[in-house]
Structures are given as C-alpha cells and as structure tokens.
Amino acid sequence: MPIHVPITFPRLSEAEMLEVDYDVMKHAFACHRELGRLCDELNYQADLAARLVEAGFDAIVREMPVTVTFCGFEKVYQLDLVVLNRVIYELKTASSITQAHIAQLLNYLLLVGSNRGKIINFRPNSVGSEFVNAPLLPEDRFRYQVRRENWSAPSRLTELVLDLLSDVGAGLEVSLYLQAITWHLGGEEKVDRLLPLRRGITQLAAQRFHLINDSEAFAITAFPFSSMRRQQKHLQTLLDLSPLKSIHWINTTVHDLHLLTLTR
Q: CB within 10 Å: which end of the chain, N or C, has fewer?
C-alpha cells in the first residue's frame, strides 16, 4: 500500500467521538491553566499526553508517523496526538484556528481513513477547539472522473499524474501531489525555477514556476470544478506574462481530475 499507517483507525459515531473528547478536553483545560498560553506547541503536546497517561488512557501516541510512498518518493506526516488508537488531535499555538489548520487535519483523516478528529489551540486566553469530520470512505477517493481538455502535456507528466492518483487517491493536499511529481521530474533544483515576467515592454519581477522543460510548466490546484473557468483566466494571464509557451494545469478534487493545457 502506498499509504502506511501504524494502526487501523475505526470509523467513529458522533457519540463515540464525544465520549473520548469529553475526558481529553478536561485535561487540555488543565494543561492550559498550569502551563499558561505562551509555551511552544511541543510542551502542550508532552504535557497533555502525560496527563492522559496518568489518567489511565492506555494508548497515547505522540507524533505518529504516516508515510506516503510512490515509486521511490516518500513523504512522512506526523500526527500530533493519537488517543486510544481512535482519535487524532492536532495541537496548535496560533491566534485562532484557521482554514489551513482544518485542511491539514482533514488531509490526515483522509490519509488514514478516519472520519473524526479535533484541533486544540492553546494560544488564546481560553482554549480553542474545533471538530473536523471526513465523511468520505477511503474507497470514495478512488472514484474520481478524469476530464481532459486540450491536454497536450508530455506523456511523462500524464503518466505520473494518473499513476499517482491511482495509487494514493484524490482529495489529498496539493503539496503532496506537487512534491511527488517534482521528485520524479528531477527534484526541486531542476523543476522549481524563477522566470521573469513582462507586461508589454515593462519588466516585472521574477515568478516561480514548476517546469517540465524550458518552455513548458505545470500547475497543480484543488479548485472546485464550478470555479475553474474563473481561475483559468488568471492562470492564462500569468502564462501570457511569462516567457513560457504553455502551462499544463492539473486540478484535482475528490470527484474530478481535470487536465487542461493552456497555451499562448
């Protein structure tokens, strides 16, 4: 399997999640009271884990590794705190819980096949928290539709994209797909390049692109299918400002893999 998880996570009902969470949050509040709000994240992680063990929780794992592999590429994620081999808790020390935090935990839930987790934020004056749910079953991420529109990318890129999603499924974070494809195309030093932009005769600054060769780039996004036409206009504008001939656009959502080549 391309996704390696040390344990099998069960699918939890809301009642099962709340039963675990009630006790965890009691200790999270105690942790916040005694450590204050200015410690680094790892201190809250260590303290909360110790409190749960002292309270009799028989399975508490910090920094549980989840490894994604794809034909030699490897990326390791670390789950902050796994309680009773059932619930993932992501611990934060931020001014507030953001969409990026929610997306991170959602990505973890999809990777391991779990459906419920929680973010706990220790930085505010009062502990902040938010439940994150992933109702999709693991097999749902492999039921996406492939749409090709004027797609003329080199066969190497096409094969990489199709094989990668066939192995790990759709709906995961864009950075995972980007890093895997970049690795297979020669690594960041070869692929990740700064190119000059120009508006007419006006020289602008350099812009970062991911190159397949000197004249073609690729871009990976996760926009909803309904907004792709609006986003296409902006990507086309970026292409027209660049010295590139084409950008091969890969847009992936849980339900669709859309492949579109933009040309000057």
A: N
User: Strand 128-133 vs strand 145-149: parallel, antiparallel, or unpaired?
Assistant: unpaired
Whether the model clears a pTM of 0.90, i.e. scores above it, the answer is yes
How many domains is the chain built from? Answer: 2
What residues does 77 pair with on adjacent strands? 66
What is the tens place of the pLDDT at every residue in 164-219? 999 999 999 999 999 999 999 999 999 999 999 999 999 999 999 999 999 999 99
Looking at the structure, do residues 121 and 229 belong to the same domain, yes or no? no
| Rounded Cα–Cα distance for residues 192 and 186 (Å) | 10
Residues 99 and 7 in one domain: yes
Given 110, 135, 160, which residue is the final one in a domain?
A: 135
Cβ-contact 90, 117 below 8 angstroms: yes
Report the alpha-carbon distance of residue 158 to residue 153 in Å, rounded: 7
Are 8 and 116 members of one domain? yes
DSSP 25: H
Question: Running DSSP on this structure, what letter comes out for residue 212?
Answer: S
- Whole domain around residue 172: which residue ranges? 139-263
